[in-house]
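Field reference: sequence -> structure
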Amino acid sequence: HGGSTLPVVDSVDSLVVMNVLTEERVLAFARSLPPVDLHTPLSTALGSPPPPEGVACRPTDSLHAVMAAFSRHHAERLCITDDGGRLLGMVTVLDVLKFFTT
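Structure field:
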């Protein structure tokens, strides 16, 4: 728990977040039986649903909402997206903690 989170986007041009890749999901996939073909496309392994609610945040979200999302998803990183789901960046727990110490 508390592993890294990376966005999976639809294309380099649009950067719409389609899913998220977490350490927990990679390990669960690797442990699945029967052994999996490591040439399986990521979209097949993860499916293509939108990211779970809360794994992406908006630039206008409150610090409270962002901190709650970190806690709820045991995440160290969250995707920052616009209203259309386009990836704007990432925010980390450390980014938020730095805000409180400066």
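Note: The helical segments are 23-31, 42-46, 63-73, 93-101.
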